Amino acid sequence: MHRVTLVDTDICFQQDETHDTLLRAGLSQGIGLPYECNSGGCGSCKFELLEGELEELWPDAPALTARDRKKGRKLACQCRALSDLVIRMRTDESCVPVHAPARQQAVLEARRDITPDIVEFRLRTESPAHFQPGQYAMLTLPGTSAPRAYSMSNLANDNGIWEFWIRRKPDGAISPALFDSFHPGDTLALDGPYGLAVLNTGSPRDVVCIAGGSGISPVLSIARGLLRSPELADRALHFFLGARTRADICGLDELAALPGFDTRVTTYIALSDASPDEGWEGATGFIHELVAKELGPRLAEHECYLAGPPPMVQATTRMLMLDHKVPQEQVHFDRFF
Ligand code: FES
Question: What ipTM was estimated for this complex?
Answer without folding.
Answer: 0.99
